[in-house]
Amino acid sequence: MTKENRLYVPKGGDLRKSLISECHDTFWVGHQGEKRTYALVQRAYYWTQMQDDVETYVRIWLICQQDKADNQKKTGLLQPLPIPKSPWESVSMDYISGLPKVGDLGSIIVMVDRLSKYATFIVAPKHVTGGTEAHPFFKHIVKYWGLPKDNVNSLAFSGPSSSKFSDPNFL
């Protein structure tokens, strides 16, 4: 069956994929991209949703994705955090999760003074939230060392309560 001198390709099997592959992957065409691959396929063949099939094929082609130019802004160099002037002025916090659950406890909150590197380890519920994080912070850090000027939170937890807790106007 033909349409405007183009051969109809029925659905089923790998024929459509093979035709797209021939018009995209082979050495003589050189991985031209979605538009040019579609133009090559539609010269001789047609089927419904041909353009969608070509776009999907090209987008998931691993070699093309690895060689594609990165249009995103390049990240700058990492900048170190300033060194605190006194102990407990700055605290970093991290979370160890995925531990075997004992009762309702299944994670550990690690709080470290950034100047002295003194660490405090606190058992916590399996799923730590900003509310469950604040109580041990005040009980184990503020009670003994005072309120730090800043804290550095792990990227592992960034719930809405945590962002409030990190706010300097929290109190």
From TrEMBL:
Organism lineage: Eukaryota, Viridiplantae, Streptophyta, Embryophyta, Tracheophyta
Protein name as it appears in the record: Integrase zinc-binding domain-containing protein
UniProt-listed Gene3D superfamilies: 1.10.340.70, Ribonuclease H-like superfamily/Ribonuclease H
InterPro entries referenced in this protein's UniProt entry, alphabetically: Integrase_H2C2, Retrovirus_Pol_polyprotein, RNaseH-like_sf, RNaseH_sf
Transmembrane segments: none
Residue span(s) of domain Integrase zinc-binding: 14-69
PANTHER family (UniProt xref): PROTEIN CBG26694, PROTEIN NYNRIN-LIKE
Organism annotation: Sesamum latifolium
GO molecular function list: nucleic acid binding
